[in-house]
Structure formats: structure tokens, C-alpha cells
Amino acid sequence: MDKRITIAIYIVLFSFVLFLFRLWDLQVIRGAEYRKTDERNRVRVLNIPAPRGIIYDRNSKPLVKNIPSFDITVVKEDIPKDPESMSALSRLTGLTIDNIKKRLKSPSSPFEPVTLKEDISNVEVAVIEARKMDFPGLQISVVVGREYIYGHSASHVLGYLGSLNLRQLRSPEYSGIPHETAIGQFGIEKVYDETLRGKTGKKVIEVDAVGSIIKVVRIQRPIKGRDIHLTVDIDLQVEAEKSLKGKAGAVVAIEPNTGEVLALASAPSFNPNLFVRGIDSKVWRGLVNDPFKPLLNRAIQSQYPPGSTFKIITAIAALEERLVDENTTYYCSGSIFFGRTFRCWKHSGHGYVNLHKALVESCDVYFYEVAKKLDIDKLAQYAMGFGLGRPSNIPLEGEVPGIVPTSGWKRERKNEKWYRGETLNTVIGQGYLSTTPLQMARLTGAVVNGGRLYEPSILAGTGSEEPESIVRIEPKYISLIKAALLSVVTDKKGTGKAAQSDIVSIGGKTGTTQVVGGVSKKKDIPHRFKDHAWFVAFAPENSPQIAVAVFVEHGEHGSTGAAPIAKRIIEAYFTNKG
């Protein structure tokens, strides 16, 4: 018996020591960890979203506004996940059980609220509030939403908001941003997201065992994002987009003496309000697969041969290189032979043509004759000097540089030498040459202001008083070019007569570029094979205040497809200014 008692005592002592060791482990060694877990179970930290800054146009008109909306959220740790509870939650929220489970698989912390349903109605708010005591962790969250006041207008400039995607969630750049925060994903909203976003606030609350709020411990107020002002005139922007209705193309208007962007329109466009609370997958696929590409910003993300608008550069290069002067004359019979036949757009010919008439009536043969003397690399120097063949550095994503071909470029890309016949194509804006509408507006502004090339600015106050570069051109040549461009619009034989205005003197240059060679003159050709239309313009004659580039895909002729749009934009600009 004594032996058994001794064994029992040892067992009790061993158990007691084991208990003490376990107590030491729980309270001392791992005490801090368990206290932290207990604190997490008792205390919740909720994010308070910061209102985004407002975006204004150059005249302080708001382009966006912040509006409150309500979301259904749950804390994953608190919500019961048994089949009966899931079924009841499904009936309450109107979501399928699979949808709820998918949302609950969010990679966020188990104590961080997860959004189940966005932008619910007032009736739904009342129903959830009445029943939320039956579902631990179920909450109604107030969210600051975004509304784009002008809908489709300026959508390629403003961009849109969206939830953090997987790449952004893993990026250090977005660390510390709550998962439910909508951030800029395109356009100005993305480029200046950090400025507009503000700083999220925090609310520390104490909860009971079922996740119900007992009290608010502490509140850290959110800091609203900064407002920004754009250089864009929304009235002019709306007018530009109206002028492109039913077309695919772009309109860009800038101030020649500052580089400020007054309007940057691309058609067709899209409604950024579709993205604010998460775009429906079917709607997204519709936008992405639309053959007219509404998400493409044609003003900066598409490049096209500039057609006869490029003759402005060819004329400047020929004058500066002393290959021609204002009296140099060539005879246009409708074509020229140089290894093969190069035709003028006017098959009957223009007769005897000097430089002024060549620009006014857009005679191709005159510029073919110039091309016989003009080195392609020398022409490229002037084109690049006026901003072609390189990005303009406008603060919007996705800008393409365009192409200004040189002999070295062809050797590198094609492994072939440059042929003089290719120069004949280039001088009239065809061949390998390609530009964007923004580049052509910038070029036009630099020509009429005397050769000062400004970097385009779209955020007010960020433009430079000093030009990016200066192309040295004799003032008499600038005067000669400007006089010809004015006659393009005012002369009875000018190709830009459709831009003539009773409000202000307008100068400009038409351009038409072939899509498929040899079919542009045929009748009843499919729309996709019709020529593209260009028109670049400035106004007024003295001290130009606006430079415009209009591009219309398959608009057929610059004279009819683009010039009237430029007139409409310029007249709207000066009418608005009074």
C-alpha cells in the first residue's frame, strides 16, 4: 500500500509540475502573443475612407464629385459559416452562397471587414440594420463614391477608379492602403492618385464575443485628398466630343505660347462611372472587344501618317536649306516620273505652282520636286525639331512616339538602304512616317509661334514658361508659311475653305491619308477602306491663341471630314471667351 501511495504522490507531483510549466509557458513565455490575440478578439480597427480630392477644369468647374454610398461588410472571423447561417445570410443579402464564400476568401486579415455587396439601396440598409444582430460581424459601411459629372466627356483624360488588383496588392507602392480603397487605374486619376487619394482614417472599437460593438475607443480622422485644377476647358472639351459624335478620331487643342492642353478628345469614348464600384465582367468584355476601341485614347495612343499636313515641315526644311524660295516654281501636270509614276491628288494638274500655291492647293508634284533635292536625314531633323518621332511627355499613360524615318532607321529596322523614291512619299506625309494628333497640334503651335516647342501640360501650374526647345527659323519664312496657311482657308481654291469663319481669322492645312492604295477614288468602297482625314489649324492670324489638330478615321477628305470640326472648335473657343 505504501508503494502505491508513493507512486500516486509522484504522479500528482508530476502533474502539478507539468501544470506549472504549462502555466509558465502560457503566461510568461507566450503571454504577449496570447494577450495580442485576445486584444484582436476584443478590439477592432476599422478604416475610415478619405474623400478623394476634386478635379476641376481651368475655369474651376468641378469635373467629379464625391457621393456617399452604403456597402454590406462582414468580419470573416466573426461571421458564422455553418450551412444554416450561410443560407440565412444569402436570403438576407440577395447574394448566392457561392458568391458569399468567394468574397470571404479575400486575402485580407480575418479581422478586416470584407465587402459582400456594394452600393445598396436605403431599403436594403433598413433591412440589414434590423437583422444584423442575428449575424455577428455583419455591418453597414459608409463609403465615399465617385461620380463623373460629364459622363463620357473627358473620360480619356480623367480616367477611372478601381479596386486594387493582385499585382498592386503585392506591390510595395500600395502597401498600407486598405484593400477596399478605390484607386486611380487610368488617366489623371491614376497619374495623380497619391495626391487625390488622401489619407485613410482609423476607428478603434471594442466588441463583445459575438462581434457586436460595445464602445468606440479612439478615432483618427481621415485626411481629404488634395483638389487639382486641369488646363482643360470642359466646355471646349464637350464641344470637341460633340463634333466627333458617330465618328472615330481625335481633337486636340492647345495654347501655342504655353503648351497648355485646352481639349483632348478621343472618340468613341466610355463612361468612367461604370468603373467606380467595380465594372460588371460582361460590360468590361464589351468595352475590350468593341471593334471601335472606346478605351483607346486616339489623341496620344494611336499613330497615323499625317498626310499633307506634313507639307508644312517639308516647306520649312526646303526654305531653310535654300532649296526653294517664295518664287521657286514647278509645273504640275498631275504626275511626275521618278523610277515610277508619282501622282498628284489632282489628276488634271495644278499648272505652274510656287510654294504659296503649293501649300494653298496642296499640290503633291511641287513637293515631289523638292524631295529630289532634299536629304531624308535633313528632313527628319526638322520634323524631330518640331516634336515628331518622340513622346511629348504629356502626363498621361500610353503615349506612342510616332515614327520619323531616316536612312539609319531603315537600315536598323529593315536592313535596307534608303531610296530617294521613299523621300517622295515622306515629303507628302505618307510612307513610314506616322504621328499622333497631339504631336500635330503641338507642331502647329510651334510653327505659328515662331519655332518655340512647349512640352504639353494638363495640370494647371505645371507648365514651363520656357519652351522645351527652339527651332531656329528665319521670321520671314514663318510669315510666308502662316500667310499660305491663312490662304488655305480664305482662298477660293484653298483646300480648307470649310474652316472659314465670320468670327475669327483661321489658318490651317488639310491632309488625307490612304488606308489601302488604289481604292480611295472608287465609289461604294467599305468604310474601313476609306481614307483618313486631317486638319491642323490656328487662330487668330496675329498672335495665335489656339492651335488645333483634328483627325477622323476614314473621314475621306481633310477638307470635308476634318476642317469643319476645327472651325467648330475654334469658334466655340472664342465665343466662350467673349
N/C terminus separation: 116 Å
CATH superfamily of the largest domain: DD-peptidase/beta-lactamase superfamily
The whole-number mean of residue pLDDT values reads 89
The CATH architecture assignment of the largest domain turns out to be: 3-Layer(aba) Sandwich
Contiguous helical run count:
21
Number of strands: 21
The biggest beta sheet is recorded as: 5 strands, antiparallel
Name the features.
578 residues, alpha+beta, Penicillin-binding protein 2a (Domain 2), Beta-lactamase, 5-stranded antiparallel sheet, 3-stranded antiparallel sheet, elongated
Textual characterization of the structure:
This protein is of the alpha+beta class and 578 residues long. The protein has 2 domains: 186 residues, Penicillin-binding protein 2a (Domain 2), CATH 3.90.1310; 326 residues, DD-peptidase/beta-lactamase superfamily (Beta-lactamase), CATH 3.40.710. It is 36% helix and 20% strand. A hairpin with a 6-residue loop joins strand 20 and strand 21. Helix 15 runs antiparallel to helix 18. The longest helix is centred in the N-terminal third of the chain and has 28 residues.
